[in-house]
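Problem: given the chain below (367 residues), write out its structure.
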Amino acid sequence: MSEQKKKVIKKKKLTKQQKFNRILATVIIIALSVAGLSWAADKFISSRYNKGEQIPEDIRTADELKDDVVNILVCGLDWEEDRTAMMTDVIMYVTLDVKAKKVSAFQIPRDTYIDDVRGNKINAAYQNGNEKDKIMNTIKLINKRLGLPVDHYVTLDMEAFIAMVDGIDNGLKMYVPYPIILKDKLTGKEEQIVGTPGWCYVDGKTAEQIVRNRNYPNQDLQRLEVQSYFYAAIIKNFTETLNVSDFIKIMNRFTQYLTTDMHWTRIASLAQFGFSVPYENMSIIKPATHGYLSVNPATGKNVAIVVAEEKEWADVLNEHFRPYQKPLSAQELHMEGPNWEVAQDYGYVSGSVQTIADIMNKSPENP
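Solution.
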């Protein structure tokens, strides 16, 4: 082979190597660009909500059940006019039964009596504890008293309700089962928000007033019922009405008021599961309670409390929130009432288990 031919072959080999190097460099640049964009997107989405402390492993679901069930504590935080601290005015323990494709939400009344919390109500546990991340006070109390594991938590303030509903074009369509009449605690002055039961479109501020209102004969328990209609309306709106761009718009406004221990990809994954569950398999459970106006011996003041009916709480928790765990007896719940003087006995209120389909069917059709 002539020297000239060798040079040509060598030159061709060098050219192929150069082409390969260029292709490799291009692939690396594209990969880095995609990684950079993914990193930027992750940082942007993560910055839209507040990241909270991780829950200790000994409170979470057992490792062998983690693929079957996920347990989440959802709390709405609120200030009221006569408070010096924020409290959990909405407390829901939500079980996502992935294996059976079910979702169950346990509504815990905020006035539920708890003897080792300053203020003696479960909603005060948030502020009255030693945890740096205050929601851990509530999580550990629920785990201790009800024997329920908690894998994740979500807290949101009342601005979240307003932002969520205001992000829906023309407002949220919901059924309101009672007249909504607000009452000022100081002056006693009343303001009518919703005059008669029925369907209405509500904006964010009105939704907040409906969700917070306690001016009913049975106060907290009727409020839980009204809230269940709100949840049903939100679920129906999100799953049937919103398109992707609407959902992104609402979440962009809503998430800034949200704190959670979850990464956004985990939130998206659980939301996707939730939206896939049929309404017949989504349950909202209100527990049986007994209401009292009792005299707190430490302060001498009358306090409105609700006391858990332990046997009924144990039964409903075992059936809906311990699908694959050992059941607990009523005595193991540690939810005894106080031995206080009773100023007024409000009586027993039975619990209820309603699916989202039940709630929608109970709502009269539009006129």
